[in-house]
Amino acid sequence: METFQARIDSYNKTKRTKQSLARSTSGSAKWPHATSYIATPRTLADAGFYFDPGPENLDNVTCFMCGKQLSDWEPDDDPFELHYLKCSGRCAWASARCGPEAEKRADGQFHFADSSRLPTSRAMEKARLETFSGNIRWPHDAVEGHGANSLQMAQAGFVYTPSHPGDDSVACYYCGTALNGWDEDDNPTLVASSAA
């Protein structure tokens, strides 16, 4: 579930769920809410959640990175905001991906509650770096001396957003830049500043 595509696909497949442990019957579940909800399969997958229904919670989702489960979605529940509020500081995805989305005002500007949330803070750099070390590892860390190693990427403001194993796609959620195809002599900081 490390990739956006795997997470989005989890909402498109019918899931088998245990209806009752006592009866040992099973049923199936699809994402139960209308597209008018803020929490759609797309927004949930982008916020790091895959569909993981249970017998009592047919709208249960689980974060691929920290394992946090959320359910009982209401029409105005924002997956980015909820993930950030419940898991920032414990989940790199909640901090590095959901935090910027939750901190963005209607005019597109960011409002940071404290200095640890600034893009240049050590806490944010650490959260971004942790996105490069999940089950799908950053491919360029295996190449000695590669300019686009995970530390350089995190320092430049990038979050790892692979679509498949071996992919080197990254995104900066402050400027909206998404890039891939990193060469050995690339300098992520220079690339980031020229792309923004």
UniProtKB/TrEMBL annotation:
Stored Gene3D superfamilies: Inhibitor Of Apoptosis Protein (2mihbC-IAP-1), Chain A
Keyword Acetylation included in the entry's annotation: no
Q: Which UniProt keywords apply?
A: Metal-binding, Zinc
Q: Name one GO molecular function term.
A: metal ion binding
Q: Which residue spans adopt a coiled-coil conformation according to this UniProt entry?
A: none
Top-rank lineage group of the source organism: Eukaryota
What is the recorded name of this protein? Inhibitor of apoptosisrepeat-containing protein
Q: Name the source organism.
A: Fomitopsis schrenkii (Brown rot fungus)
